[in-house]
Amino acid sequence: MDSFQQNIRHVYIDNQSWLANWLRNKVGCSELASDLTQDTFIRLLTNKRNATIDRHKPRALLTHIAKGLVVDYWRRKDVEQAYLDSLMTFSEEAQPGPEQRQLVIDTLIRLDQILTELPELTRKIFLLSQLDGYRYNAIATLCDVAEITVKRHMKTAFIACLSVE
């Protein structure tokens, strides 16, 4: 075991219980807190930038990682619930099967992550076009940019969305 792994081992032993309790207070569920605790340490272990983590004062970093995981969890739940709510408008015969439903949810979650990572103006332009149905000239007027700028932002957004695995 190298020194990085030993350091993380000590951080885990010294802080796992504290982090699980902290997360339980945030999410209100022991099982979810346990999962998020493990995910936090996996992120810590798999990111070599954490090689210099101070084993005696790791809680700020652990909290930072855990907060991000909590936000991701709730965002995924919101996306999933929005999709499931939209399925309620379909007839029973038009409902997708469980596997297809999960594939759509996974894709929607990944698209949400991609859109969140886009610059604000790019995301706004893309959503105005794709969700609200605005034409490029109307978006240009709304956003006070040239139509060619709208096209550039749309190209950026489309390329990002095509990267969904």
How is this structure best summarized?
By secondary structure, the protein is mainly alpha-helical. The chain is 76% helix and 0% strand. The radius of gyration is 21 Å and the shape is extended.
* SSE arrangement, N to C: HHHHHHH
Radius of gyration: 21 Å
- Could you give me the name of the CATH homologous superfamily of the largest domain? Winged helix-like DNA-binding domain superfamily/Winged helix DNA-binding domain
- Predict the CATH topology of the largest domain: Arc Repressor Mutant, subunit A
Structure description:
- By secondary structure, this protein is mainly α.
- The chain has 2 domains: 3-76, no CATH class; 85-162, Arc Repressor Mutant, subunit A, CATH 1.10.10.10.
- The chain is 76% helix and 0% strand.
- The chain has 7 helices and no strands.
- The chain has helices spanning 3-27, 30-46, 59-87, 98-117, 120-130, 136-143, 147-162.
- Helix 1 packs antiparallel against helix 2.
- The longest helix is centred in the middle third of the chain and has 29 residues, at 59-87.
- The model has no long low-confidence stretch (mean pLDDT 90).
